[in-house]
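tokens incoming
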């Protein structure tokens, strides 16, 4: 028997479940974080995100994810010292970043920089991921991005300063001046919110690569590539583009109607797992109210309200709510970052979750190797080239 596309059924396939986009498939066990989609709840190692946001520093959250508990003062000081000691980039990595064209996308520069770091012969990384490597890599994410950010403007990279936390060091290396508290504090809260998020696409990518016995930089290079896509972490600059294109409150309805009529997706809305509001969106909304200009916040709020109403009218059974990306745009703009640095800044945080997942994967590894459903033809016969 042959299918409509000329394929033949393969005998062992009919029993294999194949949800589209692997929806609902459990791909690993993890004690790191969990998204409770129905309730709109996110938990890191047993702590609700509301319990940590604005209270725990980014480094406390990193310690929590990597080591399973919040640090005491000596442990936190030790982690800050290790991160500080690891921030500088090997010269070979700076040379690779220097060779990129100024119009390269920052996520491409980050992916290249992480890959270069793995090949730099610095002695920092070997084939076996461990916590020291996770710290060494996390510490250098801000520097890779800041080096590219400055070089593309014709400026030299800035040497990181001891004593800065991650948020401060990132802003200092980007802009070359002491960051103001009104900028690094909201950035730090943002970083704590984005550090991990269950089995998302980039985390899955990192775990798949780690499961082959590959090295940490390879896993994280792959994860950066997965995060870049607009259906995952690439949405916030598109949220900014959308808000800029709308321009003012009176254009909201017509702009959104036209976009939905065209079949476009509204960036910053919908989620594979959340069927209620993303709890990070709620926290970021509050931060955006404080950090951005009243005009920009009003435009964001009006756009959000109307987008939700229209999505609920047009897709009543889809339960589409605001996701983390929508108010990330307002918060990161207020911190002084341009749109194309939003997704890379997400990665400055998520490298903690990715590396924690890699460590968890290798601690109890089995190769991740799913099955595919074969839908191609069978039993074809080779024809010599002159006969085709
Ligand atoms: N705007 C308009 N329609 C949407 C949106 C949206 N933002 N999101 C989902 N839908 C609709 C789809 O068109 C589809 O409708 P249909 O069944 O009538 O064709 C339905 O809802 C289901 O969509 P799927 O793509 O099957 O849902 P999935 O779970 O695969 O997608 C995703 C989730 C990719 C996040 C989606 O909601 C989306 O594209 N959102 C916009 C991009 C975005 O904000 N990305 C950031 C996500 S957060 C993060 O990863 C950090």
């Amino acid at each position: 028997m042959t299918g409509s596309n000329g394929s033949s059924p393969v005998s062992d396939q009919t029993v294999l479940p194949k949800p589209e986009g692997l929806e609902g498939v459990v791909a690993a066990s993890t004690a790191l974080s969990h998204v409770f989609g129905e309730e709109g709840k996110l938990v890191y190692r047993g702590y609700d995100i509301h319990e940590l946001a604005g209270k725990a520093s980014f480094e406390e959250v990193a310690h929590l994810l990597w080591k399973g508990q919040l640090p005491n003062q000596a442990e936190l000081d030790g982690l800050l010292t290790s991160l500080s000691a690891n921030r500088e980039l090997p010269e070979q990595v700076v040379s690779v970043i220097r060779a990129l064209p100024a119009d390269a996308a920052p996520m491409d520069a980050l992916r290249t920089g992480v890959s270069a770091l793995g090949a730099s012969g610095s002695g920092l990384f070997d084939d076996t991921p461990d916590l020291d490597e996770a710290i060494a890599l996390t510490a250098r994410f801000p520097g890779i991005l800041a080096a590219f950010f400055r070089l593309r403007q014709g400026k030299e990279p800035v040497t990181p300063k001891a004593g800065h936390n991650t948020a401060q060091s990132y802003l200092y290396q980007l802009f070359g001046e002491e960051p103001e508290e009104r900028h690094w504090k909201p950035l730090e809260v943002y970083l704590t919110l984005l550090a991990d998020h269950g089995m998302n696409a980039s985390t899955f990518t990192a775990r798949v690569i780690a499961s082959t016995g590959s090295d940490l930089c390879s896993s994280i290079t792959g994860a950066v590539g997965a995060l870049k896509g607009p259906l995952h972490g690439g949405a916030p600059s598109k949220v900014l583009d959308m808000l800029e294109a709308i321009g003012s409150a009176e254009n909201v309805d017509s702009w959104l109607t036209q976009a939905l009529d065209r079949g476009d997706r509204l960036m910053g809305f919908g989620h594979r797992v959340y069927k209620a509001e993303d709890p990070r969106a709620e926290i970021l909304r509050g931060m955006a109210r404080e950090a951005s200009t009243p005009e920009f916040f009003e435009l964001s709020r009006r756009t959000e309200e109307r987008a939700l109403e229209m999505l609920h009218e047009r897709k009543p059974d889809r339960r589409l709510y605001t996701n983390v990306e929508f108010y990330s745009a307002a918060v990161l703009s207020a911190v002084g970052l341009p749109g194309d640095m939003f997704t890379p800044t997400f990665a400055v945080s998520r490298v903690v979750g990715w590396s924690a997942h890699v460590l968890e994967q290798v601690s109890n590894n089995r190769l991740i190797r799913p099955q595919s459903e074969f839908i191609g033809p069978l039993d074809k016969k080779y024809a010599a080239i002159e006969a085709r």
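note: The CA atoms of residues 32 and 67 lie 10 Å apart.
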